[in-house]
Amino acid sequence: MAMGVPVVCSHIGFKGLGIDDGQGAYMRTDPTAFAEAVNSLLASQALRESVGRQGMQVVQNSFNWDKIALKLEGYFEEVRDTHRAK
Fold first, then answer.
1. Confidence of residue 73 (pLDDT cuts 50, 70, 90)
2. Does any domain span residue 74?
3. Quick check: 13 pLDDT over 80?
4. Which tens digits make up the pLDDT trace of 31-63?
5. Structural domain includes residue 79
6. Which of 3, 17, 23, 55 is most deeply packed, by most CB within 10 A?
């Protein structure tokens, strides 16, 4: 997704993304539906580009280093505060 490649994944890979189906990635649990989603992407350059762009935007907005650093800092502060309270 970070490189603009459209993604079709199972619920396991989709779970932590915090997005809806079709927002940069397709989530399919049924093998037939998975294959159909892949075939749809292969058949349409416009769809590939659209889904790829959306996926790249999701990664840039939610998983960039600044966002990750802020989350990590929050975890550290939470641990520190928990240990201070003891």
1. very high
2. no
3. no
4. 999 999 999 999 999 999 999 999 999 888 888
5. no
6. 55
Distances (CA, A) of 55 to 24, 33, 78, 83: 4, 20, 31, 39
Largest interatomic CA distance in the chain = 60
Q: At 25, which amino acid appears?
A: A
Q: What is the pTM assigned to this prediction?
A: 0.72
Tell me how many degrees the CA angle 10-14-20 measures, rounded to the nearest 5.
115
Number of structural domains (the chain) is 1
- Which residue segment(s) compose the domain that 57 sits in? 7-61
Alpha helices in the chain (DSSP H): 11-14, 31-43, 45-62, 65-85
Residue with tokens 């349409």: 44
